[in-house]
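Board notes (copied after class):
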Amino acid sequence: MDSTPTFQKVYISDVNNISGQTKKRKIWVPNEPMKEIHYEILNWFKKQEIILPSAAGGLPGNSPKRNLMRHKRQTKSSHKPFYPRYWFMTDISNAYGNVKLDLLIEATREYFIEIIEEEMIEQFFLRYCMSEDGGLVVGAPLSPLLFNIYCEKKIDESLRKYCDMHSITYSRYLDDLTFSSEFPIGRKKRKKLLNIVREGEFQINIKKTHLGDLHKKAIEINGIGLRKTSSSYVIFTPRHYLSHIRGLLNLVLKEKTNISPQIIHGKMGLFLSVSKGRKLNRTEQKVLELYQEFKTKIK
């Protein structure tokens, strides 16, 4: 077995949650020596007191549902929980690919100088963390943490400062940015928020940038639906997502696709986190039955 830490380039089938279309996506799979290096660094970081107030993804214990819960509030009078009416969502395009080496070193130096000689930090990143295409390696165990630290320095601090001044709640699930407020998030505010992201040398995915008004219709954040009723708020799995998972499971069970089991588990993880603790409807029950059949099949 080769003891040299390396990444292997692999193309996987990535299924769009909304359209259901499949496209090839390139990731880098670390061999065991490379994994050992990454997990050793990760375990060291777990012992440090790193504060990342806006990061809601890529960290232990985080999930799309917990990201949504960050926007939950309580009334001052009755302490009754509620969600803000107005929402603004956007997305960083090619997130890992936009990470600049010099800026990554600047953002993480205070941590890495404790375990790596300062003059060796750049070589460490080039050897173990940066892609030959530029940016962080997609698929590397350390990449989500590095990206979160990078974003904290490049955009999160500035976004929080602006949001605090305008009664806006902000959270970031890796490359998905969510803003909510009890007051309309107007054009000038939205422009300022997007400019802060661009000033951090990131590109905005305009196609995934949109507004939501919870009093008019349900909204969707990171694959989770949120609906306001006359007396409460309901978190649910959107119908299109259920149909997508059901169709995907049927294809896999009929051996008409070679999609990785990890993709299925990931998509079901989102569904299970949302449906936990409540009665399932007929469609949800069918999806769960198909998933149980899938798990039995791959044993």
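Comment from the instructor: The chain has two domains: 7-236, 239-298. The chain has nine helices and twelve strands.
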